[in-house]
C-alpha cells in the first residue's frame, strides 16, 4: 500500500531556480507504484543540475517540442520532437535544452519509487531560497540529507549506493544532530510501506 503523496495527477510544480516544470499525469499512488509519468518543460539553456544514475528505474523521455541534448553513458544524443530516449537502470545520464525556445518532454519512470516526492522536496527547497543558481542545495548538510533520503531513486555517477551512503553518513548524522529540515525524510518511505 502506498502512502498519500503530496503530488496528485494533474498537479503542476515548477522549480523557480532551474525553470523545470512538472505536470504529473500518473503518480506512484495512482499506479500502485508501477509508473510515474509527467509532462516536463525546460527553459532555454536549462539542464538537470548534475549527471546521475537511477539504480533500479528505467527513464523514458519523449521530446514533444524543442531540441534536447542527452548524455547517456558515454554517448551524446540530440533529440527533437518525436524522438525517444530511454535510459536503463544503472546508466549515468544528464540532459539539457539545446534549443532557443522552451523544450517539452513526456517522461515515464518505472517503477515510480519516491521520485515525485524527490522532485517536490527539491522544488520546496528552491522556493525557500535554499538552492544555488545551478539547482543544487546551498548547504552541504541539505545536499547530504537529500542525497541519502533519495538514494534509491538517484545517486552520483561512479559511486554505488553503498559507497555514497558511507561517504555521506557523517554529514547526514551532523544534519540530524543540528535539527536540519528533514522534510524529505518525512515524505520518503520505502516502496510498499
Please provide a written account of the structure.
With 193 residues, this protein is of the alpha+beta class. It has 2 domains: 12-113, Jelly Rolls, CATH 2.60.120; 116-187, no CATH class. It is 23% helix and 27% strand. It has 4 helices and 9 strands. The strands form 2 sheets. Strands 1-2-3-9-4-7 form a 6-stranded antiparallel beta sheet, with helices on one face. Strands 6-5-8 form a 3-stranded antiparallel beta sheet, with no helix packed on it. The longest helix has 17 residues, at 161-177.
Please write the CATH class name of the largest domain: Mainly Beta
Strand order of the largest sheet: 1-2-3-9-4-7
| Count of all domains | 2
Q: Radius of gyration from the CA trace?
A: 16 Å
The N- to C-terminal Cα distance equals 6 Å
Total of helices: 4
Strand-residue fraction?
25-35%
Backbone shape: globular
The main sheet comes to: 6 strands, antiparallel
User: What's the helix-strand series?
Assistant: EEEEEEEEEHHHH
User: CATH topology of the largest domain, anyone?
Assistant: Jelly Rolls
